[in-house]
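Re: that chain you flagged

S.,

Sorry for the slow reply, it's been a week of failed gels. I finally had a moment to sit down with the sequence you sent. For the record, here it is as I used it:
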Amino acid sequence: MKNIRIKRNQRNPVLKIASISILILVSFGTSYSQSWEIGGMAGASNYHGDLAFNIVPKESHFSGGIFFKYNINEYWAMRPTVSYLKISGSDSNFNEYKIRNLSFRNNIYEVSNVMEFNFQPFSRRSVHNENTFYAMLGIAGFIHKPEAKMDGEWHDLRTAKTERVNYKLIQISVPFGVGFKQSFGDNLILGFEVGWRKTFTDYLDDVSTIYPELNTSTNGVKQFADRSWEVTEDNQPRSNAGDMRGDPNFKDWYFQTAFSISYRFTPIKCAFNKINFFE
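Prediction finished late last night. Pasting the structure tokens below so you have them in one place:
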């Protein structure tokens, strides 16, 4: 029985420290937090990669998302977000790459969590600013699926194995950017932000390394790996096995410009506070 008591006593300090730590964190968050927010954003998304060395405005597409925000204090906030972004690119937008003739679209579903830093104290308190610029940085996970159009239908490029690589469709990225927000009263906040996503994949556009051997490839690879045959006079592909198809050292990026609107929850004013029981 003594051994059992000793083991229990050894565990007690750990439990006490953990409990005290949790209480401190909760009390700290309660003391300094300003509010919770719920909101949405909508705007445009675009891409930078092997099929777009420069930003092409006409390749911008709708993007949107919903978010929760926890305002830690007047300078810092944490924002988990679920977003949808669409990107695309085409060699036809650049004269020097028209003969390569590759193109794609990609629907991206993203879950992120970023920290916002306000450059001015921003909260519902009257002593703080009603607007501020802010910077953000965080981490995100996303699912993507590059596709190409042929004969009026969209085809899965990963399945076609245009470079004989089974790249992963679930990836991570580092979102960062800047924005501006303005409060209207205690609850309504409007904003605008520009956010970039640094990825660690070169296959958002399905283009990265070298051309495969087309003569021994399956029909899917022959059709989508080298589409120069669609724009040549003799309808023959122009690539040789081993020729550079993309630049593997040039990772893909995607980004978003968006307007946001959110509702800031404020403490409920109790009617009993207005009653004077001593009148």
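What I noticed first: The two ends are 64 Å apart (CA to CA).

Talk soon,
D.
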